[in-house]
Amino acid sequence: MSLQEINVKIFRYDPEADVEPRFDSFTVPVIKNMAILDVVMYVQNYVDKTLAFRCSCRIGMCGSCAMYINGRPRLACRTQVSSLGTPDITIMPLPNLPIIRDLATDMEPFFEKWKKIKPFYVGKSELKDPVAIRPDSGEREFIDQMLDCITCGCCYGACSMVATNEEYLGPAALNRAYTLIADKRDAIRVERLKAVGRSYGVWRCHDQFNCAEVCPKKLVPTKSIQQLKKRCVLQKFGVFK
Amino acid sequence: MPSREMVASQRYKTNSQVWNAVGMWAWMLHRATGIGLVLYLILHATLISTSLISGAQSFNATLTMLMTNPVLHYMELLLVGAVIYHGLNGVRLLLFDIGIGFSKQKEIFWAAMVLGAIMWISVVVVKLS
Amino acid sequence: MLNFPRILTGEGVLLNAMTWLLQRISAALLLVVLGIHIWALYVFNTSEVISFSEARARLSSAPYVLLYVLLLFFGLFHAFNGVYTVMVDMGLKTRKTTIGILIILGTALFGIGVYSIIQFIM
Ligand code: SF4
Ligand code: SF4
Ligand code: FES
């Protein structure tokens, strides 16, 4: 599809100055391989300098440019205008997070929850590095797929359980917890498991797959969460140590 | 947390749903049918037991009244539909719980829906014939 | 204020995993038991309306009595645990009170259910 121009509606809100959020419309000329990030940059450079949004790497690595674009959270830098298949584009800030200004959201609640599961590796003291994990053991097969998270928050913004229960840890943090708990070298697995096994943890997930639907890294947090639920139950029966 | 900022974003909370994906709808329908069935269960248990307080006659009278009522007759089709949906989507969820089908969740959903439609339509045919 | 043991309150770590597991177990059981219940209504039910004598005929065999007690218990558990889950999802704060009310309501419904079964047998 070759578009000449697109009509962009952008969410505008400055909590310090505005009473109500509003939408501004812009017409933006399309260039080759244009991503949504290029669109908001065009607006900021040539039309309205006050537009606020966040980005850094521009190649889908840093996870700072997640926005709500035409009906779902996506990375602005990895979303091609042509992939949306329409000249009418609506851009809003990532849902479920406080708005700092316009398209920039405050990721603090996301990372507060991220911290709750102790997102770092704690090695068992009796282990001497490097620990050998045989590549053919299959142990890391599923963990490896789930390590790619760039903490962009797309999943967090897509999960309606986060929307209705503000305490719910959310898919990204639980996914991270899984990669650590499933690691046999981890010294605080049971402690982590107790953190995710509380009522604001894994039990709030109801297999909706919104997170998997939007994850730019194609992770399936739903599956990690299911693995955690299983381990929580096993732990109650003393099978998981 | 700065509350006004959150309030503004809360107002757009419905955005956090991914409306154009089946997983979302499967979950919402599961909720809706579930709540409907709870209400039915309460009504069902209460009606049966209260009608039994004065024995067989009142039980028969109540059931005749309920089962010959044309409106309730059609509403029963809704009930059957809710049971079928909740049951079949429940099977899908149970599959996930034992670790099966994460990469095929949409296909499983549609397969369950086709099966459910066949079951429901056959009930409709039997009931209306 | 109702005072429940820790295991029954929301943050008692045991409760969440166990009710989750029981919800799945009761779901699987209900698929069978409720299936039989609905099927039986059509098989035993010869006329247009279900009659007392037909219901009594069904409940004269012990397996059917067991079936209905199971149906009542697991159906109620599944229903009320489901309601509780929806409420917690919506950010319920008063967990203990809610659990108390739901248990009382559930037990009452179980009671009137058992009463109905006895009425059919006697
Ligand atoms: S799991 Fe995916 S969507 Fe969620 S934060 Fe990580 S990369 Fe983003
Ligand atoms: S699968 Fe679970 S974590 Fe993912 S969006 Fe749904 S409820 Fe949230
Ligand atoms: S700018 Fe880094 S992920 Fe988009």
Q: What does this 3D model show about the protein?
A:
- The complex is a heterotrimer of chains A (241), B (129) and C (122).
- Chain A has two domains: 5-105, Roll (Ubiquitin-like (UB roll)); 108-236, Fumarate Reductase Iron-sulfur Protein, Chain B, domain 2 (Orthogonal Bundle), CATH 1.10.1060.10.
- In chain A, 32% of the residues lie in helices and 14% in strands.
- Chain A is built from nine helices and seven strands.
- Chain A has helices at 36-47, 108-116, 141-146, 154-158, 160-164, 171-181, 189-196, 210-214, 221-236; strands at 5-12, 22-29, 66-69, 72-75, 88-92, 99-101, 104-105.
- In chain A, helix 2 (108-116) packs parallel to helix 6, helix 6 (171-181) crosses helix 9 (221-236) and helix 7 (189-196) crosses helix 9 (221-236).
- Chain A is elongated.
- The N and C termini of chain A lie far apart (55 Å).
- Chain B is mostly helical and 129 residues long.
- Chain B has a single domain (22-128), classed as Up-down Bundle (3 helical TM bundles of succinate and fumarate reductases), CATH 1.20.1300.10.
- Chain B has helices at 3-10, 22-52, 55-68, 70-97, 105-128.
- The mean pLDDT of chain B is 87.
- Chain C has one domain (12-121): Up-down Bundle (3 helical TM bundles of succinate and fumarate reductases), CATH 1.20.1300.10.
- Helices cover 77% and strands 0% of the residues of chain C.
- Chain C contains four helices and no strands.
- The relative contact order of chain C is 0.15.
- Chains in contact: A-B, A-C, B-C.
- The A-B interface holds A 11, 13, 15, 21, 68, 71-72, 92-93, 95-100, 105-106, 108-109, 157-160, 162-163, 206-210, 212-214, 220, 222-223, 226-227, 229-230 and B 1-2, 4-6, 8-9, 11-21, 23-24, 26-27, 30, 93, 96-97, 99, 102-103, 105.
- The complex binds iron/sulfur cluster (SF4) (2 copies) and FE2/S2 (inorganic) cluster.
- One iron/sulfur cluster is lined by residues 158-159, 161, 171, 205-211, 221-222, 225 of chain A.
- The site of one iron/sulfur cluster has 14 residues of chain A, from helix 8 and helix 9.
